[in-house]
Amino acid sequence: MINKFSKFTAYHPKIILIIATLLLIPSALGYVNTKVNYDIMSYLPEDLESVQGEVILDEVFGNAANAFLVIEDMPAKDTAQLKAKIEKIDGIKSVTWVDSFLDISVPVSILPDVITDIFYSEDQTKTLMMVQFTNDSSDELTMQAIDEMNSIMNRQCFMSGLSNIMYDTKQLIDSEAPKYIAIAVALALIALSFTMNSWILPFVLLAALGYAVIYNMGTNIIFGSISYITKSMAAILQLGVTMDYSVFLMDRFEEELEKQGNSKDAMASAISQTFASLAGSSLTTVFGFLALCFMSFTLGKDIGFVLAKGVILGVLSVVIVLPAMILLLQKPILRFKHKPVVPSFKKLSEFSVDKRKALAVLLILIIVPSYVMKENVNIYYDFSKMLPEGMASVESLGKLKEDLNMATTHFAVIDEDIPAHEVSKMVNEFEQVDGISNVIALNSFVGAAISEALLPDSVLEICQKGGYRMMMINSVYTTATDKCNEQIDELISIMKKYDPDGYMTGEGALCKDLVTVTARDFTVTSIISILAIFILIAIVFKSISIPVILVACIELAIFINQAVSFVLGAEIPFIAPTVIGCVQLGATVDYAILMTSRFKEELGRTGDRVKAMKIAASASSRSIFQSALVFFCATFGVYLICDISIVKCLCSMLARGAVISALVIIIFLPALLCTLEKLISKTTYRWNPVGGKENEE
Q1: Is the pLDDT of residue 145 over 60?
Q2: CA distances from 680 to 29, 533, 673, 688, 691 (A)
């Protein structure tokens, strides 16, 4: 079957390329019509109370998406006019300000304390306006509404809130995403141009993989939407991970061409010979990516499925599209041949083998401190930290915190039938909690200052509707900090005394649950990815010891990668440990498999473990270097130009991880394999029929 497929591909390159090019059209349409989700919180499990409370806010109160406007030194009349303009914008449900309760002719100095405490700063030069959107934060209509609000606001207005953070994120992604691809391709071309033997070949390889990238991004429409993190990184990771497969095919084609002379027959043979090895090699990467799909925080599933699909499409592109391109462009490829610039690893390989016992001990000694440092890396969950400090939403959040003591807003949703006096007690207890600046509830306004009968229905419905009461609790603590999380625990404890079925939600509560969920997810995905790849390596080598050695080496590289962040004092985003753990393991374990396979081959040929290891290490290190270099260039280039910290950090760690994995495999793995060869021989089926022996010379 594979032989027939290979023959057809090699003998019909024009037909293959025409069909492949035509398939780009529906793929491009699919890419354009795939929705991008900028709401990371939407990936939290639905069984969390914070998520269930958010659903009630959305479905009952229409309050899941909101924004806060801090307005400086603006006369009340002008502020009221601004409010009227905002209310007319499509996508705005309601706008709440002082004139929602009292006439603006009333001087600020004689307003009830409940009004001034909520809507004015202490010096009364700044006022707060609360905006509710019709749809959720990431909805296109909400984004358009924020865009229109920005157009009518002047320099005295500062808009904050999660919806505005998502808006700024969208603007950045839309403007920067094309640059990510451009820089990744440019740097990969430079790396390949020097490490390959033709100036034209790198363009051909990248063009073929470009088809796979477009197919992958276009077929994402089957998921309905993808996260902005996936959109930013999927193409770069797919490019970096699957480049190896192109190099493998090209190397085999050149080898077969020398034997057969006929380029079509040589290509058919190359496809047949490499298909099985490419399929097997790609499985480790696919398994690593699919491990992300077991996260209860379903952002992992979003990233995992897209990347796994990208690897599969990359392999198919390498054995279908790339051969057609190579055959059609063979003349210019050969015409612009040159000597590749790749360093010799002979001396390093000899050093690794000669000093194997010392290096094996050093590797073991590094594991514990690396793990300890990796466990103590600072992780952040605050979404405002994912944007540059100069962004409008980040600057406005600072205004909200400094001028109105509102760093985070919590929402308590309780049963409407809770007696009014019980609700008053609850609010009073809320107000006594450390870090709470004020509580906005219906009973905050009604009573001695304002009669409930005087409140318009639009204001009443903000706090009470559909069988629920809603309270807005403003905190001076920043989201996802220990103080904020402890505060939420105390608020929940108070709420549950009065309504055991009540919900505490909002950005703070969602982030608190995010901390718990992702900590559990990291453990689960790490175990699954290690087990899956362990089993696959065990099957490939028919061994118990080899998967332990190979996985241990890559895990050490992962520990070192994260430990570097600790040493540098850097904060990393909450998703980084999980993504790095699965992606670095899946993408770079191939380095270890390549080295081990070559060692087994040379050992069977020479029967001398030292000689075999030196030959294997020297030969395979060149391929590992080339692969790691391309992966590094693709991801490091994005790190250099990216302004979104979560993407910037992930690309930085992936680039660093590729280099660290390559160094661990090139330096330490030869020492381990050579030192433990006797153990490997006893625990591996048909490891070395010749029988290895150590050269003591």
Answers
A1: yes
A2: 52, 18, 8, 10, 12
Helix (H, G, I), strand (E, B) or coil at 411: strand
Three-state DSSP state, 563: helix
Assess whether pLDDT exceeds 60 at residue 101.
yes
Amino acid at 297: F
The token pair at 130 is 């609360």
Q: Are 484 and 512 in contact (CB under 8 A)?
A: yes
The Cα-based distances of 385 to 36, 274, 397, 480, 576 in angstroms read 21, 45, 11, 11, 14
Whether the CB-CB separation of 118 and 440 falls below 8 Å is answered with: yes
The pLDDT, as a whole number, for residue 454 is 56
Side chain identity, residue 342 = V
How large is the average pLDDT for residues 466-474? 89
450: pLDDT confidence band, cut at 50, 70 and 90? Answer: low
Of residues 301, 200, 285, the one with CA closest to residue 242: 285
Check residue 663 and give its pLDDT: 93
Q: Give the model's pLDDT for residue 515.
A: 87
Per-residue pLDDT, 252? 82
Question: What are 505's strand-pairing partners?
Answer: 411
| Residue count of the chain | 697
Residue 412: its H or E element = strand 408-415
pTM of the model: 0.85
% the chain with pLDDT above 70: 95
Q: Are strands 35-37 and 92-96 parallel, antiparallel or unpaired?
A: unpaired
**Beta-sheet pairing, 225-227 with 35-37:** parallel
Closest CA to 537 of 581, 597, 580, 582: 597
| CA–CA distances in Å: residue 433 to residues 68, 119, 424, 505, 577 | 23, 20, 15, 17, 34
What integer pLDDT is reported at residue 219 of this predicted model? Answer: 96
How confident is the model over 538-546, as a mean pLDDT? 92
**Cα(359)–Cα(375) distance, rounded to whole angstroms?**
24
pLDDT, greater one: 261 or 687: 687
What pLDDT does 457 receive?
Answer: 62
506 burial via Cβ count (<10 Å: 0-12, 13-18, 19+): buried
Rg (CA), the chain: 30
For residue 478, the 8-state DSSP code is P
Q: Which residue in the block uniquely carries the two structure tokens 């430990």? A: 563
Rounded to an integer, what distance in angstroms lies between the CA atom of residue 87 and that of residue 80? Answer: 11
